[in-house]
Amino acid sequence: MGLFQSEVADLLEVNTWTFSNWEKGRTQSPFAVMPAVFRLLGHDPYPKPRTLPEHLLAKRREMGWAIKQAAWAIGVDSSIWRNWENGQMILYRKHRVAVANALNLSMDALDEQMAIEWRKTHGRVRFDAW
Fold it and tell me: Which tens digit of pLDDT belongs to each residue from 13-62?
């Protein structure tokens, strides 16, 4: 990019030491600065999400949200969002609708993914959403 650390730090609205620590891997940049990082780079440098937990994490990075903010945006408790990011199933249909809308995913695809997870953990063929 041809920019000095101090210039990038200014663009991201952080001090130079903070940026230097990120660059050297001493600390991780908070999600709050991710939208600015993506604008600066012109793209999201992370791999394209494949699983639902990866999609949830990518949405938080894109928006610069902490877990609490992401959960609030769709009307659930932060512990529920955290569980979903850690791979737990989204049991309730109203929650799946909110997640599908937030992530721009089709309900059919999300329902199918939940059914697959259900079969893996419960060994049953049928999965009914509540």
Answer: 778 888 887 788 888 878 888 888 888 889 999 999 999 999 999 999 99
DSSP-derived letter for residue 49 is: P
Q: How far apart are CA 11 and CA 24, in angstroms?
A: 18
84: domain range?
A: 52-122
CA quadruple 76, 77, 82, 84: dihedral positive or negative?
A: negative
Count the domains in the chain.
2
Query: d(Cα 38, Cα 43) in Å, to the nearest integer?
Result: 5
User: Nearest Cα to 105, choosing from 120, 117, 90, 126?
Assistant: 90
Residues 59 and 89 in one domain: yes
